[in-house]
Design a protein that fits this description.
elongated; alpha/beta; binds calcium ion; binds ligand C2E; ten-stranded mixed beta sheet
């Protein structure tokens, strides 16, 4: 009849330690991490290793939920100091899920499962944080599982469709190309947005085959579109971090270009900073090779993450996409205007073309044009639409002869 808390702890990115520094250092780090956990908790608490980089802490005799929170914060704080291993200083952070008995369960298995669910939430919040279990988390967890279940075989059942959103050069009232955006129509779940299913596809690894489908569809459509309008439209395709771990990625893209007889410069691959932050050499290699092939590289969602200038210099980007969140604020919000202005000036001075995403109003179009933004994309011009619709829509912008 005591109030107890279960803390489910997962070390963030521990796999990276093993991959880059080797298992021996990984083992030493685990031992040091375990020591640190033991130092922070109270005498009456228990620390156990569940396996891999997962630990469980059992806190007993709590008077308030508050106590669990304090201990979770102490744990995160303790990890702010770097570990010293073999003369190296290593930083390691934790994600913590918290389930409290009796509110979140009465038996070990329920509490563990719910603490695990809460830990997932802490990861989703950006790691290095804690999360208390709530009933709503279970709902979103179940939804995730359902999506995962339905996604198996979805490709074979032809449930995916690629939509296209045009990109405009407003100076000439001209469409320069489109971005391919994936849609999923599932009989059981209805239409599910990519923001919801792409993370699941990443997690299961299905993104590799789904991503190949997108490349194939987008390129064969591009061929048709280019021939029909006799224009060098280009096609932007999004690539997830996980797709870079596929050793065949480059060959696949190269073969797809050959099969459709499309020039490499007509293909643009959009990646986010997250891809570069993985810091693995295979990613650098892949980017260098893509560049050598002549394929264009776009930095997506610029302004939301670290917005690192050194990444822009270090890798051969051709295009910078200003994130929708900045565009939303203009022209009303002066900071957003100034930041957009700075991003455009900075990007262009590095030789990049700038695309503004999520352009919805005439005011945004006007201001961005004044700022010299190269290309615009957004609902103001068109939502992402099926292939045939894009053909009809873009025909209106052909020079009349
Ligand atoms: P993203 O790459 O940043 O794509 C832009 C998103 O903004 C799209 O959402 C698009 O429909 C939406 N959007 C475009 N214009 C406007 C506008 O004016 N207003 C508003 N409110 N939204 C606008 P969507 O299609 O739901 O895609 C969401 C995300 O899913 C994409 O973000 C991208 O990260 C990912 N995604 C989509 N298709 C693929 C794919 O084939 N492969 C991978 N790896 N990721 C994809
Ligand atoms: Ca994109
Ligand atoms: Ca984007």
């Amino acid at each position: 009849h005591e109030k107890i808390a279960i803390l489910f702890l997962d070390l963030d990115d521990f796999k990276k330690v093993n991959d880059t520094l080797g298992h021996e250092i990984g083992d030493k780090l685990l031992i040091e991490a375990a020591n640190k956990l033991n130092q922070v908790v109270r005498k009456e608490d228990t620390v156990g290793r569940l396996g891999g980089d997962e630990f469980i802490v059992l806190l007993r005799g709590l008077s308030h939920d508050h106590n669990a929170l304090t201990i979770a914060e102490n744990l995160l704080n303790a990890f702010r100091k770097p570990f010293r291993i073999d003369g190296r200083e290593l930083m390691l952070t934790l994600s913590i899920g918290i389930a409290i008995s009796p509110d979140n369960g009465n038996c070990a298995s329920d509490l563990l499962r719910n603490a695990d669910t809460a830990m997932y939430q802490a990861k989703a919040l950006g790691r290095n944080t804690y999360s208390f279990y709530t009933k709503e988390m279970n709902v979103s967890m179940l939804r995730r599982l359902e999506i995962e279940e339905q996604m198996h075989g979805a490709l074979e059942r032809n449930e995916f469709e690629v939509y296209y959103q045009p990109q405009f050069d407003v100076r000439y009232n001209n469409i320069i190309g489109a971005e391919a955006l994936l849609r999923w129509h599932n009989p059981a779940l209805g239409n599910i947005g990519p923001d919801e299913f792409i993370p699941v596809a990443e997690h299961t690894g299905l993104i590799v085959s789904i991503g190949q489908f997108v490349v194939k569809q987008a390129l064969s459509f591009l061929k048709e579109w280019q021939s029909l309008h006799q224009k060098q439209y280009r096609m932007a395709v999004n690539l997830s971090p996980r797709q870079f771990r596929d050793a065949e990625l480059l060959d696949f893209i190269q073969n797809s270009l050959n099969d459709t007889n499309i020039e490499a410069v007509s293909l643009e691959l959009e990646i986010t900073e997250g891809v570069l932050m993985i810091g693995q050499s295979y990613i650098d290699d892949a980017l260098v090779k893509l560049n050598k092939l002549g394929i264009k590289l776009a930095m997506d969602d610029f302004g939301t993450g670290y917005s690192s200038l050194s990444y822009l210099r270090q890798y051969s980007f051709d295009v910078l996409k200003i994130d929708r969140s900045f565009i939303q604020g203009i022209p009303k919000n002066t900071e957003d205007c100034e930041l957009s202005n700075a991003i455009i000036a900075m990007g262009q001075s590095l030789g990049l073309k700038i695309v503004a995403e999520g352009v919805e109003t005439k005011e945004q179009v006007d201001l961005l044009s004044t700022l010299g933004c190269d290309y615009l994309q957004g609902y103001f011009f068109s939502k992402p639409v099926p292939a045939m619709q894009l053909i009809d829509f873009s025909a209106k912008y052909l020079p009349s002869n």
